[in-house]
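Suppose a classmate hands you a notebook page containing two proteins, each written out with its sequence and a corresponding row of structure tokens. How would you begin to make sense of it? This section walks through that situation. The first entry is reproduced here exactly as it would appear on such a page.
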Amino acid sequence: MADPASGTREPTEEAHEAGTPQCEARGAAIHFFNHKPTTKNPPERFTGDVWLDPIAAPRDAGQRMTVVKVRFAPGARTAWHSHAHGQTLHVLQGVAWVQSRGTGKVELHAGQTAYCPPGEEHWHGAVPDRFTTHLALWEGDDVVWGDPVSDADYAAAAR
């Protein structure tokens, strides 16, 4: 159904039935991202319980942006890693820690955003006593994964 004020339309019935909802907005086709199920962390890249919900991924030539909602159980965290084009983290809920190698940790609260520059090795995750959820945004698929963050290094960050 069209909204006369904005010129937008709801997805068509046929599009819903086909499993690829689309709608027309001012003459341009808008495609809805097909829902992918929540996945549990790959253990070689995370310590603790972590769940990943893909939000956006490159769809057309020249696109590079990936967005994932990441939910961490208390104490859960990524392994050390870096992104060729950097990474932005936006905390939606809870309290998160982010640390670049060789520096102190940064504590982020809901509504705060951090940026890890290109090639900077870092990790991020939940504080020891709270769940956290953040959006992870990066460009390209050239993530370089390193060693897990040890329990000793995580405990040192807690001090």
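The notebook's second entry, a different protein, reads as follows.
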Amino acid sequence: MPRKVKRQLPPSRIRYEEGNPTVSCRVSKDIYDRLVAAKEVEGKSFADILKIGLGKQEVQAKKVKVARQQAWDEGYKKGYADAALRYKVVYHCNVCRKEMEVTHENEKKAVNQFMLEHGWGHNECH
């Protein structure tokens, strides 16, 4: 039995195959028949049909990505607002009366000292 000798591919063919890899998959007979019908009606190749479907999928994927980001942003803003309402400590400036947030360590120490000096504590402790 003669041996098959694998012939050397020309560089142009190697470049073509690297730039255009083969895609292969198994589908049911029903899907195959639908693909063949679409191919004949539209006058397009299987590759063209795949490109159209991929384009639609990419559009849908982009919509989903945008919707997820919007939902995340809304949830983050709501969670941040809820946490700020519950945990943020503010007081009013004694000059302009604008609201100021306790953020600096010295302010936190002063608030703590004020609470201790004026008998603030848990309801059950008093």
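A careful reader of the second entry would note: The chain is about 60% helix and 5% strand.
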